[in-house]
Amino acid sequence: MAGLRRMTRRLLSVGLACCLLALLPAPASRADELPLRKAGLWEIKVVRVGSLLPQMTMQHCTDETTDKEMSTLFAPMSKEVCSRRDTRKTETGYVSDSVCSVGGLSLASHSDITGDFNSAFTVKSTSHAEYGSGGAPHDNVVTFEAKWLGDCKPDQKPGDVVMPGGFKINVKDAQKLKSLLPK
Fold first, then answer.
1. How far apart are CA 143 and CA 47, in angstroms?
2. For residues 97 and 180, which has the higher predicted lDDT (pLDDT)?
3. What is the pLDDT of residues 111-126, one digit of tens each?
4. What is the SS3 assignment for 32?
5. I need a labelling partner for 61 at 20 to 30 A (CA). Which of 14, 45, 167, 168 fits?
6. What does the pLDDT look like over 142-157, one tens digit per residue?
């Protein structure tokens, strides 16, 4: 039972890390920047195709300052774990390519991003993961469906992310987020 909990926590941690890295702005060296999201409460549904990880829905309370700060706050973490993060504007939205390594996991991903960042946007991401400990390579297809729900709830502040099961963390607390990443 403890092994199953440990594996589930590791999978959830990797999933959270991948979600955050996929949704975060890339460092300033990239060619194009994603627009800021409309302030308020966003629901982000993570749909995985052919994965052992379950579908996950989380909520993120944000404002203009928080979205801008996320770029600055996570840029050092992104630089530490990502050797490549490129984003460019297309006719239909944006395309992002990245190569990141976290917790013995090497992840190369390609994302197509569409939507208006005011009411809804979608990130369709394909990735190839390789585990340094000899695990089999794994290809994954994930879709992030984000929709604006309205104002944040009275007990929420900008930066709060509510995960499945009610676990809440504020993205401004980088030390707590780093502790969730697998070693």
1. 5
2. 97
3. 999 999 999 999 999 9
4. coil
5. 14
6. 899 999 999 999 999 9
Whether the per-residue pLDDT at 36 is higher than 60: the answer is yes
Confidence band for 52, pLDDT divided at 50, 70 and 90: low
| Dist CA 12 CA 117 (whole Å) | 26
- Listed in sequence order, the residues at least 6 apart from 1 whose beta carbon sits closer than 8 Å to its beta carbon are none
Task: Find the farthest-apart pair of alpha carbons in the chain and give their distance in angstroms, rounded.
Answer: 50
Length of the chain: 183
Calculated CA dihedral for residues 87, 88, 90, 93, nearest 10 degrees = 40
For residue 46, is pLDDT > 80? yes
- What's the one-letter identity of residue 122? T
Q: Are 85 and 26 in contact (CB under 8 A)?
A: yes
Under 8 Å between Cβ of 8 and 14: no
Matching residue, tokens 């579908």: 55
DSSP state at residue 132: T
Q: What is the C-alpha to C-alpha distance for residues 110 and 132, in angstroms, rounded to an integer?
A: 21
Segments in the chain forming alpha helices (H):
2-23, 64-81, 174-180
Tell me how many domains the chain contains. Answer: 1
